[in-house]
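Possible race condition, two jobs.
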Amino acid sequence: MARKILWALLALAPLTILARYVFDLGDVPLFVLSAAALVPLAWLIGEATEHAGDHTGPGVGGFLNASFGNAPELIIALFAIADGLPNVVRASLAGSVVSNLLLVLGLAIVMGPERALDRRSLVPQLGVVGAAVLLFLIPSVPGFSGNPERHSLAVETLPVAALLLVLYVVVTTSVLRRHREIHAREGGEAGAGWTLPVALAALAAATGATAVISEILVHTLQAFADAAGLSQFFIAIVIVAIVGNAAEHGGAVVIARRGKLKLASEIAISSSAQVAVLVTPAVALLSWLVKPTLPLAFRPVELATMAGATIAVALVIYDADARRREGVFLIATYVGFVVWFLLAGDR
């Protein structure tokens, strides 16, 4: 019954597009409608990823979900750069790393079965997140004083972005090669469910719709912020980050509830790694085309919470066993960070 309802709710996506571009619905109700439309889209991405993972194994399945799910994040960031909102971009990217590590992984562990995690796959991906935070210090520390948007910091960002992309390619290639070998040894193709082309087509379609709906939601966030009395920083690092990663958030929880915690954990940590070492440097480099350029000059609160989230997850996956109390610990840590974000205010 629930599946039939979710299939029917996919109609919210075209309704949202019509409400925005045809009927010119007000910003606040449009925000609510677009947020609701993202829920069934996130479920569809999770559904398609699960079927793709049956054919490719959990490692490649998690990579596919992260890749498709992070496309809206990249699109949202480029729209925000073009609108002259660099602080929103950096905050939403930092928030994506933190929410995927703490909120998504925490919910997956709480909702899923208590069982072993694939530490050999998760540790290298978590390691690149930690490396990214250290590299972010190069343009960030000079940005603590003066104008964080100055051209010199954008120039300093270029080698950092290039190094992050190289790191992403090296680590991802190694992890995916290992997962392909494991999946080949354990039995190859699945015999039931969607075919791999159907699953990939559903992923692509759902991701495209998610990108459009996310863009609509971002353009209505300010009206919602004014009505709710929230700072632009809080909206970006919490609301925009969660909305931009709705696919991973919903998909990982759905998959964990079905007992596939390894795939769900791959989605959460792989998505954070992709945001840190693929989406973030890609946004910085593409900003030279979109204009204005985006220095990766993060605020201390953003750097501290990304580092803190990395350490918290490292403590959880250290023994390669997922326990519900550890999931609660991750969620509680995220809630604590959200309170900090609320108190931090704008730059």
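Job #2 (started ~2 s after job #1):
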Amino acid sequence: MATAVVNYTAAAVSDRGRKRPSNEDAFGFSVESGVFFVCDGMGGAAAGEIASSLAIDEMLRSLGTRHPSNRAAGETPMPQLAEEAVFSTNQAIFSRSQRNQRLSGMGTTLVGLVVEERRVWVVNVGDSRCYRLRARRLEQITQDHSLVEEQVRLGRMTRAEALRSPLKNVITRALGTQNRVTPDIIELEAEPGDLFLLCSDGLTRELSDPLIESMLSLDLPPEELCGRLVNAAKKAGGHDNITCLLVRANQ
């Protein structure tokens, strides 16, 4: 197992949900380049849709061509490349909002994976999430950059209070709202059979982690699992846009 080589397959579904007039979520991936991203945009009018789609395009452009498989040994390490990609993407969104008053204040979350064989880097800004299912056990890999999550981590609010808080939608980090942002970058090692879930909060606000764990444990293709998760979130209320991207490590 320690030397097993893995390759990846992916599938995604995005839905506007039952309450929102449009879908401000976006996703994009390239299995060949080993890059997978989900964004949840915010802003008035169509600004959220613009921010999230711009973020996806910029991240895929930046990392798709500079993935480790395309680089010579000794070049810039992937965590640094990922951070630079986030910086340039943030600047692209921020600059566009500065040039167009109608887009002022737009921004987006970003969560993604960059993979090279067994090495996996998780990139996160905001409150979209990355989970890993291993041996039918679900683990949340990212920490939400949100006001209530920070209060929970500081012991000033319980998890139950956070779920009921009117401030639960307030995020403390986003792409494009400030001139500079710092992403969390987490390095992991994949094992054959691992299933990574990248999702917007439209999924996690409606479905509990134990329910997500039980649904992902079903022996089904990733595209069918995505559809089931999104449909379950819609049936549970569908108050927000819902996006689910699954990445499976195969032997």
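The chain has one domain: 7-250.
Logs attached separately.
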